[in-house]
Amino acid sequence: MKAKEWIPSNDKTDDMKIQEEKIPFFATKRGRGISALIMVAVITVVLALSLSENSGAVTYQINDEMLGITCLDKPPLFIYYEDILQIELVDSLDLGEAIDIADWDSGWCGTYKNDDYGVYTLFAYSSCSQFIVVHYSDGVLVFNFKKDKSTEKACENLMEHCGLQAK
User: Fold this and answer.
1) In the prediction, which pLDDT does 54 show?
2) pTM beyond cutoff 0.70
3) Strands 66-71 and 107-114, how do they pair?
4) Cross-strand pairs, 69
5) Which of 71, 120, 131, 148 could cross-link with 109 by S-S, CB 3.0 to 4.6 Å?
6) Distance from chain centroid for Cα 2
7) What is the DSSP string of 6-71?
8) Which helix (H) or strand (E) holds 148?
């Protein structure tokens, strides 16, 4: 019977070194750097997509007591739910006459006057065909978001908080 051969760790052959040194690409220094860049790119894309839904010039926030909405550099408008008389989701809007507006290429922001609502505040994107109309004790607010789906969802959420039915 032949005795087992013992190879000291210092006497490894070249074939043995090649097999031991094979490690996955992403475990190498270069691989870790590339994977870090890929992760940063993925996170950036995910954040950009998630924030684009309700970000931009028109932003709103709903809490237990009120609706807060702002557009560009206009001061924010806060409306308590108890002051809201009616909420409508409309498919078209006659802008009427501009009274006090901010420059914005993607929509309308400011105070307008038309035959339907009188003097009203408008914070709206031109890319969306629907508008939320909020009649409250101090006037009328008309707003929307970049997409119809976002506008519909915001209207449902607002009506739910106010305890009103869709009109």
Assistant:
1) 44
2) no
3) unpaired
4) 60, 77
5) 71
6) 73
7) P--GGG--HHHHHHHT---GGGSHHHHHHHHHHHHHHHHHHHHHHHHSS-SSEEEEE-SSEEEEEE
8) helix 148-162
Burial class (CB in 10 A: 0-12, 13-18, 19+), 162: buried
* Radius of gyration of the CA atoms of the chain, in A: 30
Q: Which residues of the chain have pLDDT under 50?
A: 51-55
- Report DSSP letters for 96-124, one per residue: -EEEEE---TTEEEEEEEETTTEEEEEEE
Q: Cβ neighbours of residue 133 under 8 Å, at least 6 residues apart?
A: 86, 87, 88, 89, 90, 117, 140, 141, 142
Q: Is 151 exposed, middle or buried, given 0-12, 13-18 or 19+ CB atoms closer than 10 A? A: buried
Whether 167 contacts 86, CB under 8 Å: yes
d(CA 5, CA 75): 84
> CA torsion angle for 116, 118, 121, 124 (degrees, to 10)?
30
Q: What is the pLDDT of residues 128-153, one digit of tens each?
A: 999 999 999 999 999 998 899 989 99
